[in-house]
Amino acid sequence: MTRDLLCFSHLRWDFVYQRPNHLMARAARDRRVYFVDEPHFVLGGSPGITAVDREGVTVVTPQLATGLDHAARDRQLANLMDAFVATESIQQPTLWYYTPMALRWTRHLESSAVVFDSMDYLPGFLGAPTELPILEGELLQRADVVFCGGASLHERMRRLHPASHCFPSTVDVVHFRQARAGLSDPEDQRGIARPRLGYAGVIDERIDLDLIDAVARSCEDWQVVLVGPVAKINPADLPRRANIHYLGLKSYRDLPTYFGSWDIGWMPFARNAATRYISPTKTPEYLAAGLPVVSTSIHDVVALYGRQGLAAIADDASGTTRMVNRILSGHRPAQHEVDALLASRSWDRTWDAMATLVDEIERAVVATPSAGKRLPTAMVPSRARVRPAPSGSPSYAASGMRPSEAS
Q1: Quick one: pLDDT at residue 402?
Q2: Which among 374, 364, 362 has a CA at the least distance from the CA of 103?
């Protein structure tokens, strides 16, 4: 029996398309999947839930009034989840966590399996809640299995959990290979000269802004193209030069059209607590698009790609300039070597391997229910009903409307 899956994420579905989107879209091919966004807060709003379909995944967004203290917020979220689970007739689902913070209002839920997919070391991020390490410890106690988004995370987690498995970020090769087909340059990129050093992803504390500025300053004929939203940093702190171009958030669907007219896929990551354990999804995406890669010395990039000569590594402006010039003069990895590596790494394979491990856990639950069933430890009453949102639309409605991303 394939169980329903409830996924709790710190990343909204409609934000940058990354690991949770890839895996949950594949999970939804043979089971009901509910992707629970972080709450959306509305001034004077009433508790409620909206639900919309995204690639076969039901994206669930709790709605709460602003101004609640933590305890009141957690009670309302727990009650909303109880009501939603009852409405959907969800019984002993797989609970899949990307954020331990969700334990505060889901620890009471029954389950057939608990999965912690650790894609980042969240306590190292700017503004991380002080209780996050404590909740991570609780989640590790509850989890049947831990999946790690890279080798660095796995080295950490294997000491903390007996069933830790390394699943580095992989790639949809077919999607990004479109970039090699001579696609038309997007309108907002068309007027930018070449050569182009491109970065796609969130622009936050993980990005080395000083490095970007120094490279742009020293090589004024090069164009730095940054595709992605700015988060958690002051936009006033971004380097501003004529050859630095901020194009904003783009859909996953459109990324190959941007990559197709870049000359280098650049990963100018800072080396700090937030990047210590990252395994960037964009590395294989750049390579699948036919782009040579230049990156700072992120451990997993060096281990998986740098040592094989598939990514050039440079941490300062002079080193980056040297590597880029080398690539522009024709020294780049053979595409057949890149493709041979990527052929063994796909999101389909990753999901299949993960699903096999989870299915084994759930089969054990069926065989010995009393041993495997996750019972509530802090039961929250489920008497609350989901009430209408202020807009007047049903609070649980597959209306196709998304709540605002503001919170």
Answers
A1: 29
A2: 374
* DSSP codes, 368-401: SHHHH-B--SS-------PPPPTTSS-SS---SP
Determine how many CB atoms are found less than 10 A away from the CB of residue 2. Answer: 13
Return phi, psi of residue 202, to 5°.
-70, 135
> pTM of the full predicted structure?
0.88
Q: Is 332 left (phi over 0), alpha (psi -120 to 50) or beta?
A: beta
- Look-up of token digits 């331990």: 100
- Token readout for 325 is 């010039």
- In total, the chain counts a number of residues equal to 407
Please count the other Cβ atoms lying within 10 Å of the Cβ belonging to residue 325: 13
Token code pair at residue 171: 């790639």
Q: Which residues contact 356 (CB under 8 A, 6 or more apart)?
A: none
Domains and CATH numbers, the chain: 5-170+347-372 (3.40.50.2000), 173-342 (3.40.50.2000)
What are the pLDDT digits (tens) for 160-177? Answer: 999 999 999 899 999 999
Does residue 239 have a cis bond before it (omega within 30 degrees)?
no
- Comparing CA positions, the residue from 45, 46, 24 lying closest to residue 35 is 24
Nearest of 114, 265, 112, 296 to residue 195 by alpha carbon: 265
Q: What is the pLDDT of residues 306-345, one digit of tens each?
A: 999 999 999 999 999 999 999 999 999 999 999 999 998 8
Alpha-carbon gap, residue 4 to 1, rounded angstroms: 10
